[in-house]
UniProtKB/TrEMBL annotation, chain A:
InterPro entries assigned to the protein according to its UniProt record, in alphabetical order: PtdIno-glycan_biosynth_class_S
Family statement drawn from the similarity comment of this UniProt entry: Belongs to the PIGS family.
GO cellular component, one term: GPI-anchor transamidase complex
Residue span of region Disordered: 1-47, 625-654
Residue spans crossing the bilayer: 57-76, 597-617
Assigned keywords, A-Z: Endoplasmic reticulum, Glycoprotein, GPI-anchor biosynthesis, Membrane, Transmembrane, Transmembrane helix
Keyword Endoplasmic reticulum: yes
Protein's organism: Dioszegia hungarica
Membrane topology value: Multi-pass membrane protein
Name of the protein in question: Phosphatidylinositol-glycan biosynthesis class S protein-domain-containing protein
Location(s), subcellular: Endoplasmic reticulum membrane
Gene Ontology biological-process annotations: attachment of GPI anchor to protein; GPI anchor biosynthetic process
Chief place where the protein resides: endoplasmic reticulum
From TrEMBL, chain B:
Protein keywords: Membrane, Signal, Transmembrane, Transmembrane helix
Pfam families membership: Gpi16
Protein name: GPI transamidase component PIG-T
Basic and acidic residues: bias regions: 557-567
PANTHER family the record matches: GPI TRANSAMIDASE COMPONENT PIG-T (PTHR12959:SF11), GPI TRANSAMIDASE COMPONENT PIG-T-RELATED (PTHR12959)
Transmembrane annotation, as ranges: 516-535
Amino acid sequence: MSSSAVPPESGRIAVAEVATTASPATPADPKSPRTTGGIQTPLDPTRIVNPSRRRRVLILLSFPLFFLLGVPFWWWSTSIERLSLPVERIAALESAPVTTVRSTILLTSAPDAYPPPPPGVPSYGPRQVCEALGDSVIKSTEAYYKQGGRLGTRWWDMVYEGGGRDAPALHVHLLRSEYASTDFPLKPYVQTPHLGLAGIPGPGGAAGGVKAGTLVIPIHPKQVGDRYLREHLKLAITDSILGLYPSEPPEIPLRAIKYSPNVTLSFVLLNEDAAEGEYVQGWDIEAAIREHFTPHLEPLRPIFNFTIESQMLYHAPLSFEPTWTDVASQGEDVKLQIESALGEAEKGKEGAEEVAKALIEEDKREKAWMVDEEMMKVFVNSERWTLDSGISQNPVLRFLLFIPSPSHRPLLLSAPSSSPPSFLLPQFGSVVILNPPSSAPTYHLTPPALKSSFHLFTSHLYSLLALPGTPPKVYPCPPPDPRMEPSGLRDGLNRWQLESVARQRMRENEDEARKTLVGIGRLVKKIKEMQVGEEVRGRVVGAVDRLEKMAKTRDPLEAFVLSRDAVALANEAFFHPSMMGLLYFPNEHKFAVYTPLFAPIAVPILVGMLKELVAWVRRRKLRAKRRAGQPAQPAPTDPTAEEPAGMEPGGLTHSAADKLAGIGAYVSESSEEGSARGVDVVGLADLVIVGPATDRRGTLRARPSRAAQPAS
Amino acid sequence: MTRLIYLLGLLAPWVAASLSADEFHEALTLHPLPDGKLSVLFEFTTYFSGSTGHGRTPESHHSLTSPSLLLPLQQNNVSELSISFVSGQWDQHRSGQAGPLSYGSGGGGGETRGWLRNSKGASPGKVNENWVAVTNALGGLFCATLAPAKEGEVVKTFGDIYPPSRETKQNLTHFHVPHPEQLLCAENLTPFLALLPSKGVSGLSHLLAQPGVVLSWGFKAEGIEVIMPDPSTATGGLWKGWWEGVVDLVPVTGGSRASSIEKLFRRSIPRVFPEASSSVIRLITPEQDNFRMEPQAGSREEQWLDGRKREVMVWDLMDGGLVGQDLRFWWENEGDFGHPLKLESSPISISRRMAAPYASDGTFVIRITNNGDDQRDAVYSEVWPWWVKGWMSEVSAAVESGETEGSSSELLRHLAYHPSYPPHPSTTSLHFSLTLPAHATLILTIPYSKLTIKYTEHRPDAERGVELPSGVLTLLDLEGESDFPNSTVIQSRRSGRTHIYTTRLLLDLPTPDFSMPYNVIIMSCTVMAVFFGMMQGALSRQWGYVDTAMERLRGRGKVTEGARRGAEMGPEGEGDTEKIS
């Protein structure tokens, strides 16, 4: 490490080479000794080798500049796609009133359903009669909504003409019928798809035929001449329309399932324990569904898509033990009787003992296995019972026909008046308990045996889907042949009820779609890093479009389809995989990633720039000081220097050097500008590097004693 | 190919037997093995005819079957499907059997195979989607991974090895997904029981519904095989589930092998499942004279099992006479069981090992021993992940010992090689058509290299290694199990076991250091700091004079230190200033 290893001459020569070849930046001053060759002062190599101050500043600045230039690329490569959502339209939807669709009702009459005018009075056609009747119906409806604070709106208009394709779906028809009741009030009914009273084929029937779904007001020929027929007609029509087409569709109760276009119905026959014997071996499920469910499912096709599956379980153990108690109603009486009989027997009454025995026997027969309300809640043993295939995400309604094992028969519900024992599980399904008579080792349930159970299942289906029942003032449709017995089964949903369901579900969907859209907007607003891609935006826009279009639609079914699609699109957008809040990192994560990368780079850049800044400040101070105290400055010691004397190292002031010493620097003169005076700072590290006596560096380390000599 | 068609014929009887009415059959087979163990096999077979309604609403009605099993298959156009889980190893040498009694069980781990109908007019990718959908659905049902992790992991060249049992291969696509890492565990037993109509409550399934008992057995295999009804020919469907385990009859402390149903299952014979069409306990009697049973069997059958004619005792449980009873069997006058010194070997046995297992490459050595008197025809098949690269030109087949000598070309008649196409996830499959000379061991060696797989492609437990699916030997010349009159006691071709499996193989892969991300961060930060500092320093360094002479004057040795100090002290001393100037 000895500097003596470097011959002073070689250093001198090398520096000279550098000076002649590599210092074009140095101004060629004729007075300068450098131009005449060789290094005259130790300052010269410093000046020659080191870049000028401006260039060094530029070099230092080039690094942050490079990063600045890189920022757009970084921005481009890390930015996320955030398409704008139609926020204003969503906000407008949020505040918009609930969409309601106005329907039209067609009122027609058979030509012979009203009394012929008395002689001399001009005869009116059916249309005029209907118009007059329609006006009075509208008036009485309006009056009904106004009276007694019943708030409601008539969401329909009456028309009296129409046919073909554009015929309104809702139709009221006055029909003269031999088989109608002769008594008042009139008994309106909604025509079912089978042949009606008119004896004319229903669906797509020829002109004059009564189409299925038509509200028929049957008038017996005897009634035609009645004085008050018109009043009766008005009452009958008003009441049935009010019942069938309420102003507000009923709220969807909590027990009903949320709307989903696809619904699976799972029918399960559960034998509690087939191995105990007396179990149900089979059931005519296809026939039962055809008879009891298909008539109700078919009309709902525009709203729900049903899938049906059925299975039988031979081992369906209960998770609880029912209690063996008296049948609720008779229990107390029999007990009293037994007690009194026993008391009499004690008194020695003849025969009383036998009476008591018989009563006890009877009492045994009146006992049953009871399922109380708490047990009903845990009746479905979902741990052990596989009640559906679970192959789709559709909501499943389960209809369970439970056959208790012989040791648990009869199994009854403790709730009174539940015969046959059945209960509904909200949003889950329905349970019917069937106690077969103990007569055969196995049973096969035929359609008649399943009738009562499926009747219950049907009514539970109506509850679970929130389907409207038949209003009180509308009577069941008579059988096609008057000689036939009424079927006793519930009629399927008619067109009027379907519209009611559509309006009800439309409201539900619209509400959900709006809430979801607002939620998406809020979510996107809240998580700034969340991506909003074309797929999400397309779905949101699609949902908004549909909701806006819905308000302009007149057909309730069409509006319902729009609402269904809107809610599906809104949910798709909301549950889109890219809309996951967890996918996006908080800022802390970003710092964690960027800090290890940029902190080590930033340190040299900042320190370098800080040094430059400090040097600049120092230079300024020095200059100011020099300007202020020039006379006091010592005389220049280096006559060869082109700069004024104050600039020389000898002019280094104590105070400045004191401070510089702290960072291990020494001050040298810069000579680039004639007027500028400066202090150049060389860092500690530089000095250390300068130290080693390598050849290259050695060139700069001209021997101080020699170098100083010409200066002194 | 003609042999495959013949095999198809073997499966025909029960296909013809499938009737329109649903039927449920169950059987428990006990098979004492010569090494003091007992193989226990439960089989549950259901014949069904799916009933779909006639209305516009799609309907699906089930009585003895479970819709959760059949509906996914029906919806995805599945014609046949078979799932097998195996945990533990079958010892071909000690048991004298080439594999478990359940012929559908694979060699190790999980395995899913199936034939799917190509839907008309649909895109060719549709059938692949169906396969993924159905395996995902059944994977959810069985709480196991059955679907391929990536589409390329599906093997489609095994159709000839597992031919469809009913239909011709026309319009069908075969899928095979091995999951060698999947083990049989308690989560797979509960859903299996739930699929049975008896639900583990009555019938033989009641014996099986004890996870604590059956899962403690050594070798365990579970599986299902479903053949869906064919709507075009109006034939019914069938689904069969099996569970097999191997129990050690000899107590830990030594003793006799005497055992009984109660001892095995801690339960007596359960009540009958009333809807069962048949329910039997079968016992394959060992070939020893001192074997006794109580109560005596109701009937007796003969069956060819792995080339041996065996006597099978059958107890019918349907009459209910055995309910609540026990079934005992023992070896008379047997004190402590002594392990036999010589064991009868199975007609064909196979083993696969790895020779020269280096980090980069190795050699598969497959030894197929034919102990029979006949020369046999067989196909040996393997599936490798893409990163195993076999050296096909180096494959050799040789006979180890014995009288028969054959050249490699005679032994290895044909090789079907379906290479993978890395780096896409794909598999290599190989089918070797082999001739197995009588009383000889054929050695097939396949050298291979391991390719490097990506950091992200390693399993979470990468250091453990990766299992290779078991190899399959498919015998092409079997004659079936039913009794042939006037035949000798040993006839190696008399067997129903078409497939003999090797065990799976654990292959260790070179694994990277998984703490690498941290190292990379640390390294890159250091490199950035050093590189950047140096670059900036080099570009903006100020060179200058250092007075080293002063140091020399002071007699200090360290030049740099002295120089710096000199520079620092410069302004203070008059001399320093001068020197700098």
